[in-house]
Automatic annotation (TrEMBL):
Species annotation: Crocosphaera subtropica (strain ATCC 51142 / BH68) (Cyanothece sp. (strain ATCC 51142))
Listed PROSITE patterns: R3H
Lineage of source species: Bacteria, Bacillati, Cyanobacteriota, Cyanophyceae, Oscillatoriophycideae
Name of this chain's protein: R3H domain-containing protein
InterPro entries per the UniProt record, alphabetical: AAA+_ATPase, P-loop_NTPase, PTPase_dom, R3H_AAA, R3H_dom, R3H_dom_sf, Spore_III_AA_AAA+_ATPase
Region of interest (Disordered), ranges: 353-404
Length: 604
């Protein structure tokens, strides 16, 4: 496992978690619910049946829908209350005893945490009520008290009813009372600190700012920072893009954030375009050839856009089972590379003791699979080299690091590469137009064989590639290799084989070298070869784009009759791709918005 703070690898079995005060561990949770005040707003026929129920103290909510039997819901069960359906007068009895319903159709009972939510018909009349019991549970955050002390921003995730708001209320009280911090609660629905102008005692010394309408929550968040100098801001239900941007603005001003968001797991937040900025945002990045090759991935990959707004994320799977991501940036980077993060799982047993587990990953990560200094996982290389099937020809004594211990051993390796077995068969020579002997046998050194074969095939050149220097007519090598390889020049001179240098390992340079070698005039190249498609490109990206278009046409569009979409390219490169497609007498169109505009090739 990688330590994201130091970029060092740790043994998961040796990981230690900061100790949590024993007082917090052993403390029994104290619950305050003011249930009698909620029962007082219910009609007597419903109220009496709830009071007589043996699990009255575990009541979750009461549901009253017009024309249907009233229902009481407890953890794991729901029961009907009586045999008389709810009437309009029953609903009106309860409505008159609660506060004003706000723009989000929620009301409350003054100085309590209960929430009454309304269901309206098309004309705006209330035809249903959900009376939810609000409880202040003291000691519920013993599992994460050490994280609250760090001063880092915390994001709570979980399904409805798992206890996010209850934990948020307790975190605000602990930060205000135990750590003497200036805490401001943005209470949009009066659910954290209760209804009325005086907040519920459950929030301790924390201050509460009410929001007139849910649409103004992001403005109140900014107003709290500008006017009241908070050290901590507590936000419930961040659900819009404006609220996510306001949260980032607050975090960048050095204020600790504690909030909840819609989403069960951190993966849900990544896939939510509205809220993904809370975990840093996701963007598509086009890599260079070398970087894509080093990562072993495609050129277009997903990466984190910015540092996360919340440094710590907590997934509340159950009331007594929470999953903690102590470094959200590291978790997001791992998930974007199809890796498996290794978060902590924290539970509370029957005795109130907190149990912290962190399972050991199936395989210890290889340091080579991470980007240098980025903590980003990279896919492992594939093929013969990764599988271990590539073995050295023979051992040459000891090695120091990754280099051979002496220059003589390197010379022996170089000598072994001059003469490699070739398929049996005699050279066949055919007289050329000027009396030359064709084909010409070329020994390539430091040049991509596939690129040489491509040029030879397209231009129909009388050239054969060989791996045996003794049977070669000429050596074609990169100039950079020739400067450093005096041994190559000595061997070629001993065998009286001329050497032709290539400036760079690109198709245009290879084409010019082979044409000069054969004494061909570039201006007289047959038009069918359409050399403009190769010589026009001046860099590897353009050549790669043209090669991509050629392979798409010759391997999919022409033989299978299927349209093909290419990767996004710049306008200049797309124009070159269009010209190549016209050479095959096919149609192509550009579609999409920059920078993701790309080519689509249609069959004839």
């Amino acid at each position: 496992m990688l330590n994201p703070k130091t970029n060092n690898f740790l043994n998961p079995s040796s990981i230690t978690v900061p100790s949590i005060p024993k007082k917090a561990l052993s403390q029994r949770m104290q619950i305050t619910d003011d249930l009698s005040k909620l029962l007082d707003i219910l009609p007597s026929s419903i109220r009496n049946q709830i009071k007589d129920h043996p699990n009255c103290d575990r009541l979750v909510e009461v549901v009253m829908d017009l024309g249907r039997l009233p229902e009481a819901r407890f953890p794991g069960e729901a029961i009907y209350l009586g045999e008389n359906p709810v009437s309009a007068s029953d609903l009106q009895y309860s409505i008159q005893r609660v506060g004003i319903f706000s723009g989000d159709n929620r009301a409350g009972i003054e100085r309590t945490l209960h929430r009454i939510s309304a269901i309206r018909n098309r004309t705006g009349d209330i035809i249903g009520l959900t009376c939810r019991v609000g409880r202040a549970v003291f000691g519920t955050i013993s599992m994460i008290r050490d994280l609250v002390e760090t001063g880092q921003s915390l994001l709570l995730l979980g399904r409805p009813g798992v206890g996010k708001t209850t934990a948020l209320r307790e975190i605000a009280r602990v930060l205000a009372d135990d750590f003497d911090k200036r805490v401001v609660i943005i209470d949009t629905s009066n659910e954290i600190a209760g209804d009325g102008d005086i907040p519920h005692p459950a929030i301790g010394r924390a201050r509460r700012m009410q929001v007139a309408t849910p649409e103004l929550q992001h403005k109140v968040m900014i107003e709290a920072v500008e006017n009241h100098m908070p050290e901590v801001i507590v936000i419930d239900e961040i659900g819009t893009e404006l609220e996510a941007l306001a949260a980032r603005t607050i975090a960048e001003r050095g204020v600790q954030l504690v909030g909840t968001a819609h989403g069960n797991r951190i993966e849900n937040l990544m896939k939510n375009p509205t809220l993904s900025d809370l975990v840093g945002g996701i963007q598509a990045v086009t890599l260079g050839d070398d970087e894509a090759r080093r990562r072993g991935s495609q050129k277009t990959v997903l990466e984190r856009k910015a540092p996360p707004t919340f440094e710590i994320a907590i997934e509340m799977l159950e009331r007594q089972k929470w999953v903690v991501h102590e470094d959200v940036a590291y978790t997001i980077d791992i998930l974007l590379r199809n890796g498996e993060p290794n978060p902590q799982t924290r539970t509370v047993d029957e005795n109130g003791e907190v149990q912290i587990t962190q399972e050991e990953p199936d395989q210890t990560p290889n340091p080579a699979s991470f980007g240098r200094g980025t903590g980003q996982m990279i896919q492992q290389p594939k093929g013969w080299r990764a599988s271990g099937k590539m073995t050295p020809v023979s051992p040459f004594g000891s090695k120091k690091g990754n280099k051979l211990s002496s220059a003589s051993e390197f010379d022996r390796l170089l000598d072994a590469s001059w003469c490699q077995p070739e398929p049996k068969g005699d050279k066949v020579r055919v007289p050329g137009p000027n009396g030359e002997d064709f084909p010409v046998y070329i020994y390539p050194y430091g040049i991509g064989r596939s690129q040489l074969e491509q040029v030879i095939e397209v231009l129909n050149l009388p050239i054969v590639l060989t791996k045996d220097l003794d049977s070669a007519d000429v050596v074609v090598a990169l100039r950079s290799h020739l400067k450093n390889q005096s041994k190559l020049r000595q061997v070629a001179k001993a065998r009286q084989v001329p050497i032709h240098g290539v400036k760079s390992n690109t198709i245009p340079q290879i084409t010019r070298t082979l044409q000069r070698l054969l004494g061909m005039d570039e201006a007289k190249t047959p038009e069918t070869a359409d050399l403009r498609l190769f010589t026009r490109g001046s860099n590897d990206d353009e050549l790669e784009a043209l090669e991509e278009a050629r392979l798409a046409v010759e391997q999919i569009v022409l033989p299978k009759g299927q349209p093909v979409e290419l990767l996004p390219r710049s306008p200049k490169v797309r124009k070159m791709q269009h010209e190549l497609v016209e050479h095959y007498r096919l149609q192509s169109d550009s579609f999409g918005e920059e920078p993701n505009r790309r080519l689509r090739i249609y069959p004839a």
